[in-house]
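REQUEST ID: PR-0412
SUBMITTED BY: lab tech R.K.
PRIORITY: routine
TASK: structure prediction, single protein chain
INPUT:
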Amino acid sequence: MKDVIFVTPTDSINLNDEIFGTLTLASILKYADVSVKIKRFFQFGDISDFDNFINTAEKKILSHNPKIVSFYTRCDVYHVMLKIAERIKSVSPETYIVFGGPQADACAEETILVFDYVDFICCGEGEKTIVPLFKSLLNGEPDLTVDGLVYKKDGNAVINPRPALLTDFDSLPFADFSLWTDIEREAKDIYALPIDIGRGCPFNCIFCSTKSFWERKYRLKSAERIIEEIKLVHNVFNITHFKFMHDMFTMNKQAVCELCEKIKELDFKITWSCSARADCLTPELVDTMADAGLDRIFIGVESGSPRMQKVIKKNLKLDKAYEIIKYISEKGIFISASYIYGFPDETPEDLSQTIYSYLTLSTYKGIRTWCHRCTFFPGTEIEKTHGHELTESAIFSDLSGDYGATACADLINAHPKIFPQYKEYNTPLRNSLKYFDYFLWVLRKVPSVYMHLSKYYTPTTMLDMYYDWEKANFDLLKNLDSATVNKDSANHLIENDKFIQTFEKDEHYQIIKDVIRFYADYVLYKKRGSLGVYGFIVDDYFDNKEIADYQKGLSRVTVSADGTVKINKMKL
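STATUS: complete
OUTPUT:
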């Protein structure tokens, strides 16, 4: 028997996918002599068999006879959590159902009024409120005065004042990582572990939900506390790579440098990743972080249009952003650079600039570009402004995904205020981008080819490249599900790209075909040994956005049936 079962949307056995916030709350309860256990989605089976998934979840959760089941809610799984909660309540009415996390926080009032099987929603940071609330529930006398609590009384929603934001993270107890070792896992499943090093971003992007959740208050744990957590994780799991979880880690450069110095003093070497804004990085700071083990970084660019940078309140100075991103790339640090397309006020010229920016960065070494369809998450400024204009849609942004969403379509469509992330905002531009995600996939995989072909367009007419690509490849595209990019279909598009064939008069058309063929050899036919050579081809054939005309000649690469790579010199 367990007093409390926490349910998280972790759908992979990999430890690096665990939810650190849930671990923290579970640890606090455990230290307060409350018996707890964490249940994850991957323990419930395949979500594609939705009814069986819900049945298994209910049985495995209730097998522990819990008095409280607490759900961590994200936008991409909120419908699933509701379905599990409903089933649990129908089988065990006396079990308290408690929701927490960003999605429940953003739509707490609507949720508590509509879904009777949700007893309580906890808003804001719960480290100081979870013990008094949960202990009162376990005693059978709910404390309805707890800060951040939302509940229903006489048919109305009661919303208590939010708890004050934490100012002293170091006073919190350390996480009990034994709660993450209750499932057999192999060492190979552990690439990196998340460590919550602070919270809050002071910036004001209109598409971001966390700015409201953390009230735009930047906070960082002390360097000493972070180092102690690193040591603890290392001792428990014997790993040396960490994901530093913070919306905007590099806001306080002095604190970052202090942490880096302490990392270098460790008895063991670590590597780590983080998120940052491009305008909160300098070459000197990057050097300091790299010396301390930084090997991956996430940077949101969002738009290549200076006008849209202001509209969405991202406010990056793009030239400066590209400079620091290129510097990071040249340092050998892997970069994930993120973009968003389809903003309500976006024009074809704006999107063209984003395509050009996305493509340009895709040619940098050690970078992976992402571009997501604009999604209207609950609680965001953009959702508050345009939520009333959203309509039903069969196309889901990859940010919200289709994790059980199709099976829950009736639930989602019945409650648009709770599920705006699954709705569509209709503009002529957005409606014309049916296969745009496939186009972006192709650009990202063979950027050197498309960077060369971009000379036939301009940075403000790059959207025409998409329309030309879609027209040329329509026979390949028309039978594809445009909602989600299928990797096999996307790779097939690259190998059989009819858009490329329209440039047969290009003076370097043969080399373009060679690069495409080599990509197909490596990716489609799995001919190993060629990955490093593929990078070599791209670097040699395409330099400074044009095909280089080396007098010394380039290398034509052939891959034999057994995977052997042979390099032959050839002249342009």
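NOTES: The first helix runs from residue 20 to 31.
REVIEWED BY: pending
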